[in-house]
Amino acid sequence: NGQDPSIFTVTYHETQGEADTATNALSSPYTNTSNPQTIYVNITNTVTGCDTTTSFNIEVQEAAQANPDMVPIVYEICDDNMETDGDTTNDSAQFDLLTQNPDVLDGQDPANYIVSYYATQADADAGTNPIPFLYENTTNPQVIYVRVDNDTMVDDGTGIMVDSSICYETAELTLQVNPLPEFDIDDSYLLCINTNGTEVVNPPVIDTGLNSTDYTFEWLLEGVTLSGETGSSLIPTQGGNYTVIVTDVTTSSQTMCQNSDSTVVEESEPPVVDADVTTEAFADVHNILVTATGSGVSAYEFSLDDGVWELGVLNTDGSYTYTFTDVAGGDHIITVRDINGCGETSIAVTVMDYPHFFTPNDDGFNDTWNIYGIQNQPDAVIYIFDRYGKLLKQLSPTSPGWDGTFNGNPMPTSDYWFTVEYKEPSDLTQQKQFKAHFTLKR
């Protein structure tokens, strides 16, 4: 206090009386006998012999320790989103720092300490600029600093309890954002089954593209775990909503980050096909209406006699239809296929009409003449005449047809007339007769 220390002696005592008489001075260092404890001081001027006394309190506060076991604290959480840019150093997430207090205190009574977190060591030492407990990292990984303060409350001498803490310690804490398993499966897959719905044809493979060493897999169908399905891919055997849950078992045992994705497996099957000739027999133009139905989700394409594929029209009942127009008389094959490759169905259709010519020259083509599509009407009768009305032949619908002869003699190139008595194919209750002519060519 501005005085010359060389002319004073200062001694410390446990009682006021000892301080007054300057007896039983305390040695240094000194171990207190109570906590807190009052220490009394004697100050004597060695020149004049005058002395005075004063006192002060000493207090031993409980030490504050940050991470006393010295095991590095690494706070790991999983990323909120799947990695998109391949750079994990810019991954960020929100950390709840309060969850780390037990590790920081490591058995110390949390009621006696204040734990705060800082972005820099300087801020932690000064106790300034603490970061919020819900904190989003700025780099990955990021080292932050934790400060533990003794929270001892003492009487300030006026009866008010105040925090007299002078003890603190800091430690490092690493924030680590671990990536989610990165994979992608298609939004939907097509499961081809046969027409009776019992056999799977060329089943799809739902593949995560991950390996079973670094990840575990759980597959679910309609939310129910599929027993025994723990591989990185799945071959579905029925339609439905599938989910795969992937767990990273190598990056961190603390987080075991999981990611999931879902897909829909849709069943499709070759169609059931029905065809109707919508025009009457012997019409100038013939049309065939084809209807395809199936239990799947696919659209259907239609082809006549291996011709161009045409996309059908979707009806309100889920069936597909297509109309072939200007179809020639005779036998035809109509094929319908699933546009996604789940099979095709073919049916035979016959349009009742007559050939406008034939060439009975034994070359294997058009050697006989008969009505197309009348074979299933055995009661029908066909009469063939020359231009003068002479009956040359009476044909059975099931016969090979007229070979162009009369009484074993070849008839010349000319036009010939016929009459046919038949039932209308679209309505077998209608008995009809049709007359026309055709040409024999030699």
From TrEMBL:
Query: Can you tell which superkingdom this protein's organism belongs to?
Result: Bacteria
Q: Which InterPro entries match?
A: T9SS_type_B
Short name of any one Pfam family annotated for the protein: CHU_C
UniProt name for this protein: Gliding motility-associated-like protein
Species of the source: Olleya aquimaris
